Model the fold of this input.
Amino acid sequence: MYRIVELPEIKKDEWTQLVNESPVASWFQTYEAFSFFESLSFMNAFVLGVESDNHLKGIVVGYIQQDGGFAKRYFSRRAIINGGPLLAEDIKEEVLTLLLSALKSRLKKKTIYIEFRNYANYEPWKDTFEKNGFSYEPHYDVHIETPDIETVHAGLNRNRKRNIKKALENGICIDNNPGEKELNIFYRQMQRLYRDKVKTPLYPYEFFQKIYKLPSSRLFIAKDKEGCVIGGMMCIALEKKVLYAWYACGDDEKYKTLSPSVMVNYASICHAAENGFHTFDFMGAGKPDDGGYGVRDFKLKFGGKLLELGRFDYICNPMLFSLGKLAVSIMKKKK
Done:
């Protein structure tokens, strides 16, 4: 017997067990992640599970996201499932189909499209997604194996080793236990980065303030010799498994000899190696057709593997999706 379950029916102990046993587990499908997303005043979180013979076989945790003013918010309504679904290794095709069908049914009037952003290999279930109307979109990620610090150092590009050596010689300091004062400065630096270079909206400070308080969060702050904050990196941890690089910035142009962006990434990767994580996940490295994707090149210089883990997209409203793409394109041109 198969059935869809929602809170409070989902058994927390089975949820935790599925996280521990699933080959595609991520922090983003944990109860802690759902509770975090649900706590945000500007976000609508959702969770959906599927049982087979009273045993939990799959979980989807996500949130509905919108950007900008009224018009843009209307045309940008999408459901994001970071990390992909949490699935039992032996989940049957019909059970996954039931989960995907229920997800589409619940979200079709609330969103324009649904997107699974995979951080693990979902190849065994790709056909099932496609049979249920989800199209596969190629997308890269970079994973670094972190069994020990020697492996991390061996994987570093020659330029990265030079950057790190020079930064240490010039007195850079990494604070891995910063206070909320440093968090606030880091957030303001992130705001400038997203406004001037990334050109996409950044979540409100509430998002970062609440991440900072989670047991699974890790914040690394780069400081110069005078103690000024010159960069930072916010990570989230699936304990003893994967450390995820969520947000990072650094004023590399002003502090060329200190390479703050390099150093906060290096400190995070070292933390993974020294604290029992088997993988450091950069959480995305662009699409294959993004020619000179600078962020991908930056990440690959730390070593690791370039993986095509892809995304699964389902368009709930094709007409609004097409109009939305046109509207966003026009707004970008005006800017």
